[in-house]
């Protein structure tokens, strides 16, 4: 029996990928939401079993985000030739005009924390400079400070005259699913403990600065349940967990490691999305991502990479239709068709599987109980495809671009062309100390489906989609790129090693 999923008119995407993945929740936002769930479960981090009910009570930190992102007055007041006491007074009056009334009415505590107004203004400037999307046109309540520690974490909010509400636009549950994925891995508790140790140090200097601005934490009124993840286990969950543990074991400061954790999460979530789509469609071949390594000259791999991108872009929509059509091949459907009331019984089976059609349709809706099974399947498939294209169908494009895996640079169409950030994350995740370049390319293909060189793309040469020389040149372009990044050392023309500059184990 499939679980009922609240808040959806029908459940198709949700049973393929979970409730929910969302295109506007880019990987850095998914990780921020994940950290909020983790912080609320810090006593038992990533220890929930698939049968456990996972709940969390996110922080709201309205004072902090108001000071950082709804406070344009602090710079102008700082520059005025006024005594320090008058600067505080003028700023307080101006800040009060746009105050939400949600705990930010009395900001006098700031006077006890900062020695001068200039010190206060410098703290604001410092934290703003490290914030995610600080200069975007997003509403101020949907901007986020860098997660320096437990006091810097808070959920996305809509704040208006009616108060504050979580409208699930930028924190759409993808981070909740990320939490569940990592709970359902072999090494989840180990990872959870390391994340708490490294990212939830309340005594860290930057977290203390955040706490000085925020004051006491502000929590959501009630705890809430996390989203729905349809898989008890999945190989991609374990791959993500192992990658994060590898990144955390490197000898680099945690704030630098966090960038790689975000890129790794984005890559593995993207692959989860594509792998589930393939599985739903009955395609047993592994996901393949043919990457062009951009060079000064146009390469023959570019067209192939664009074709690979387009093929993967089409996977999810095909999966949605397959998910609806598969009901025709079930025993329940066969029994419904052969019953005395096939229309009514088919509608019941559809409800059990997809929470559709509604039992009480609107006045302008048809009488679903009198529609044939074929009509019901056709109508739901059309509805599901139309809804899918609004958000789920945009995930591949949005996430691959966000992590730097895809690009339109020097090309009319989008193709896979990984940037330096992705390449660095791959090296840091895969290479403990050093690894032969050929072995590295093999691991990149095995773990993530990325095809770069002639050995990994031998089947493409055999199928005459590309010649071996083009893939060899692509391989050489990657080697040259990694040499420029200080990640490859050439010992001879035929022997190169990928080196992880942070490979030695250590803690910051």
Please characterize this protein's 3D structure.
The chain is mainly alpha-helical. Among the domains are: 26-171 and 185-228, no CATH class; 318-388, no CATH class. It contains 22 helices and 11 strands. It has helices at residues 13-17, 27-40, 62-69, 73-79, 84-97, 109-113, 117-129, 174-183, 188-199, 205-214, 235-249, 254-280, 301-313, 315-325, 331-337, 342-354, 373-388, 395-402, 420-430, 437-448, 458-462, 468-484; strands at 55-56, 158-160, 163-165, 224-225, 289-290, 406-407, 415-416, 434-436, 450-451, 488-492, 495-499. It has a 3-stranded antiparallel β-sheet. The radius of gyration is 26 Å and the shape is globular. The two termini are 48 Å apart.
Summarize the structure.
This protein has 508 residues and is mostly helical. Helices cover 50% and strands 6% of the residues.
Residues in β-strands, percent: 5-15%
Q: How is the biggest beta sheet arranged?
A: 3 strands, antiparallel
Radius of gyration: 26 Å
Which class of secondary structure composition applies to the elements? mainly alpha
Instruction: Summarize the amount of helix as a percent range.
Output: 40-55%
Unreliable segments of 5+ consecutive residues: none
How many strand elements?
11
Spatial order of the strands forming the largest sheet: 8-11-10
């Amino acid at each position: 029996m499939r679980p009922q999923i609240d808040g959806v008119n029908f459940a198709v995407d949700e049973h393929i990928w979970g409730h929910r993945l969302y295109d506007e929740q880019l990987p850095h936002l998914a990780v921020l939401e994940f950290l909020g769930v983790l912080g609320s479960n810090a006593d038992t981090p990533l220890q929930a079993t698939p049968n456990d009910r996972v709940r969390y009570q996110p922080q709201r930190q309205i004072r902090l985000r108001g000071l950082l992102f709804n406070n344009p007055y602090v710079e102008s007041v700082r520059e005025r030739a006024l005594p320090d006491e008058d600067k505080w007074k003028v700023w307080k009056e101006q800040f009060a005009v746009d105050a939400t009334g949600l705990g930010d009415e009395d900001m006098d505590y700031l006077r006890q924390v900062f020695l001068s107004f200039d010190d206060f203004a410098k703290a604001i400037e410092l934290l703003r400079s490290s914030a995610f999307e600080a200069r975007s046109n997003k509403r101020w309540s949907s901007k986020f400070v860098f997660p320096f520690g437990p006091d810097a974490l808070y959920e996305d909010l809509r704040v208006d005259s009616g108060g504050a509400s979580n409208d699930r636009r930028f924190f759409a549950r993808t981070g909740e699913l990320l939490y569940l994925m990592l709970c359902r891995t072999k090494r989840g508790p180990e990872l959870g403990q390391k994340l708490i140790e490294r990212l939830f140090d309340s005594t860290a200097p930057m977290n203390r600065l955040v706490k000085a601005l925020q004051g006491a934490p502000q929590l959501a009124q009630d705890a809430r349940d996390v989203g729905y993840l349809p898989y008890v286990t999945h190989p991609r969950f374990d791959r993500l967990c192992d990658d994060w543990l590898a990144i955390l074991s490197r000898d680099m400061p945690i704030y630098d490691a966090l960038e790689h954790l975000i890129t790794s999460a984005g890559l593995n979530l993207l692959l989860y999305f594509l792998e589930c789509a393939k599985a739903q469609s009955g395609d047993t071949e592994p996901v393949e991502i043919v990457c062009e390594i951009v060079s000064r000259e146009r390469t023959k791999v570019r067209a192939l990479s664009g074709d690979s991108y387009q093929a993967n872009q089409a996977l999810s929509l095909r999966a949605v239709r397959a998910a609806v059509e598969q009901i025709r091949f079930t025993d329940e459907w066969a029994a419904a068709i052969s019953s005395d009331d096939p229309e009514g019984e088919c509608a019941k089976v559809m409800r059990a599987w997809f929470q559709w059609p509604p039992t009480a349709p609107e006045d302008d809706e048809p009488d679903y109980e009198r529609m044939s099974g074929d009509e019901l399947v056709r109508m739901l498939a059309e509805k599901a495809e139309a809804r899918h294209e609004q958000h789920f169908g945009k995930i591949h494009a949005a996430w691959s671009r966000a992590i730097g895996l895809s690009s339109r640079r020097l090309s009319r169409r989008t193709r896979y062309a990984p940037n330096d950030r992705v390449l660095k994350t791959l090296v840091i995740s895969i290479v403990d100390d050093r690894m032969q370049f050929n072995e590295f390319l093999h691991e990149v293909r095995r773990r993530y489906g990325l095809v770069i060189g002639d050995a990994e793309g031998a089947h493409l040469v055999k199928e005459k989609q590309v010649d071996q020389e083009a893939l060899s040149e692509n391989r050489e372009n990657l080697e040259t790129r990694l040499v420029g990044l200080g990640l490859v050392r050439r010992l001879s023309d035929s022997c190169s090693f990928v080196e992880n500059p942070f490979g030695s184990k250590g803690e910051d």
